[in-house]
Amino acid sequence: MAIIKGLSSRATPQKIVTYLTKEEKTEKKLISGKDCSPGSIVQEFRATKELYDKIGGVQYHHMIQSFSPKDNITPKKAHKLGIELAEKQFKGHEVFIVTHKDKEHIHNHLVINSVSFEDGKKYQSNRISMIELKRASNRQCAREGLITLDLDHRAAERISTGEKRIEMKGGTTWKDELRQCIDFSKEKANSFEEFKESLKKNFEIDIRITNKTISYQHPEKLKPIRGSKLGTNYDKEELGNEFIRKSKGIEGARSEGASRKSNVNWSEVGSNVKNEGNRLSEQFGNDVTGAIQRKVRDIKERTDRATGISKPKDRAIKNEQRDDKRSAQPGACEPNTKYAARDKKPNKKIRKRNIDFER
Predict the structure, then answer these.
(1) φ and ψ at residue 61, rounded to 5 degrees
(2) Secondary structure (3-state) at 113
(3) DSSP result, 281-321
(4) What is the chain's mean pLDDT, rounded?
(5) What is the model's pLDDT at position 16?
(6) What are the residue ranges of CATH 3.30.930.30 in the chain?
(7) Which of 87, 72, 83 is CA-nearest to residue 146?
(8) What's the alpha-carbon Rg for the chain, to the nearest Å?
(9) Measured distance CA(59)–CA(45) in Å, rounded
(10) How many helices (H) and strands (E) does the chain have?
(11) What is the pLDDT of residue 278?
C-alpha cells in the first residue's frame, strides 16, 4: 500500500537535497533525476526559474510515496516505481527522485521544480492533483500486486494536521468539542427537531439545515462549520440515516411490546440544565455523561468570559427586577417589619422604576 503525502516550500532546494542524499538513508543507485542531472539539481531548478523570470514564490513541491512493510518491496523496485510516477504525473517539470531504505517502510521522495521548463507555467498542487497522484500510485500497486489504498472511503472524523498537533500535546480542539456535543445529542434524539433542540438547550450550539447540508455554530466561533468538515458521522445524510434506523427500531420495539429504559434520567438532566443556566448536573455517575457535563461547563464559562458576562451581577439584576414587579402588585408580598418605615414611602418610586423598566 503506497501512501502519498505532499508539501510545498519557498526555501531553496539545497537543504532538502542535502537531507535526502545522506549516506545512511540511501545509496547512489537510488538517486535519479527526470529531465535533469541529480548532481546539479539546485542549479537547474534555478536556471529554469530565471529563464521565465519566476524566481519568487514556491520553489519546489515535495511528494513522498511510502510503501507498507507488508508489501515486502525492494528499494530497487520502489525506486523504479518512483521514476515511473514522476514521468507520468510531472511532465514538463524537472524532478529529483530519491529512495530511502533507512526505515521499516521503503519510501520515495520526489522533489518537483515549481516552474515548468517547457512553458514556464507553475505546477498547481491542490486537492484534485493530489487525488490524481494517489490514483496513479494505486494503479502501480494494483499492477505490481501490492496493497492499494482505499481512496473512496470517507473518514468518519476529519481531523486536520493542526488538530493532531493539539491532541498530541494533550489539548482539546473546538472541533472535537463540537463532535462530543453532537454525539451526545445524536444519541438521545430521534429526529432533526429533537437533535436541534438538544444542541441548543444543552450546549448553546445553533445548527442550520438546508436541503443537502447541516452546519454547526460553536458558541465561541463567529462562523458555523459544515458537518462534512467534521466527518461523515456529522453530515446531514448520515444523521438522517441514523434517525431513520432509530425510528424503525422504535417502531419494532413498540410492535413487540418491548420497552427499553435508560439508566440515566434525561428529563432530570434537562431540568438541571434549565435551572443551572444551561449547565448539566454533575451528580450522575455515567462516565460519558460526566465528560459531557464538564465539556458544557468549560464551553459556557469561556463564552461568558469572552462576552464579558458576569453571572452574579446578572442574577442580582434579575432578582431586583423580580422584586420590583412583585412590589408593584398590590398584596403581592407583605412588607418586612424591619424595613417598614422605609417601605411606606417608596411605593411611588417603585412604580416609577417599573414604568422606566417597561419602557
Answers:
(1) -115, 135
(2) strand
(3) -S----HHHHHHHHHHHHHHHHHHHHHT--HHHHHHHHHHH
(4) 76
(5) 93
(6) 2-144
(7) 72
(8) 32
(9) 8
(10) 14, 8
(11) 43
The position carrying cell 444523521 is: 239
- Backbone phi, psi, residue 12, to 5°: -65, 145
Please answer whether residues 238 and 246 qualify as being in contact, where contact means their C-beta atoms are separated by less than 8 angstroms.
no
Q: How far apart are the first and last CA of the chain?
A: 71
Domain range 2-144, CATH architecture:
2-Layer Sandwich (3.30)
What is the dihedral sign for C-alpha 177, 178, 183, 185?
positive
Residue 346 is predicted with a pLDDT of 46
Among the listed residues 137, 13, 19, 143, the one whose alpha carbon sits nearest the alpha carbon of residue 84: 137
Cα-Cα-Cα-Cα dihedral sign, residues 137, 140, 144, 147: positive
pLDDT tens string 235-293: 888 888 888 888 776 555 555 544 444 444 445 544 554 454 444 334 433 454 455 55
- List the Cα angle 231/61/163 in 5-degree steps: 30
Residue 17 has pLDDT above 90, yes or no: yes
